[in-house]
Amino acid sequence: MMAMEQPVGISEKRTLRIFNVGEPALAKAIADSIARRTNQLQRADGRDPEKRLNDFLEARAEIFRRIYGAAFNATDRLDVVADASSFDMGEEIKIYVEPWRVTLCGKAGPDPHNTGAGKKPVQLHGNIIFRFLDLVEEIDPSQARAECEGCVIEITLPKMQSGVRAA
User: Fold this and answer.
1) Structural domain boundaries in the chain
2) CA-CA distances (angstroms) from residue 95 to 47, 58, 113?
3) What pLDDT sits at residue 125?
4) Phi, psi (deg, nearest 5) at residue 93
């Protein structure tokens, strides 16, 4: 990951850190987490080779998926409001900011969105998970700010100045 790291505060036992990150570094972290989860599922299935692809697809769906949240378009910025309830309350949440995407990363906690009739229980607690939101406009990752209150993260992302491209 790139060296730019900004601690942005603690709110109800949640620490947030913003990283201005290049896509290859983030892709490797996501792939490593999916591989660990695939191995967990394979061990649970008795390493059945016929279930290997299904285990990988299930792991990918659990580890890397869209954020429950929204981006609000203001004149000079995008304001992202995201649900952080699937992350462990006592652990740090990393916010990876790219010009066209925001990704939250942290240890999984009990997932309140994984309940209901007919749903198979997912044992993700303690695994590193990623939640992302694609943005509608290019932003300046170096100027991102974030705050957390309970299970809601608010991220302020200044828009890229016209004529200037993000690195």
Assistant:
1) 5-20+64-112+123-158
2) 34, 24, 21
3) 75
4) -110, 125
**What average pLDDT score do residues 149-162 get?**
91
| Cα(38)–Cα(48) distance, integer angstroms | 12
- The H-or-E segment that residue 116 falls in is none
How much is the pLDDT for 111?
A: 58
113: tokens are 């969105």
Q: Which fold has domain 5-20+64-112+123-158?
A: Immunoglobulin-like (2.60.40)
**Which range is least confidently modeled, 102-106, 120-124, 125-129?**
120-124
Longest CA pairwise span in the chain (Å): 56
- In 10 A of CB 11, how many CB atoms? 14
Q: Is 139 left (phi over 0), alpha (psi -120 to 50) or beta?
A: beta
84, 154 Cβ separation under 8 angstroms: no
**What pLDDT is recorded for position 126?**
79
**pTM for the predicted model, two decimal places:** 0.80
CA distance 67 to 103: 8
The residues with which 72 forms a beta bridge, in sequence order, are 79
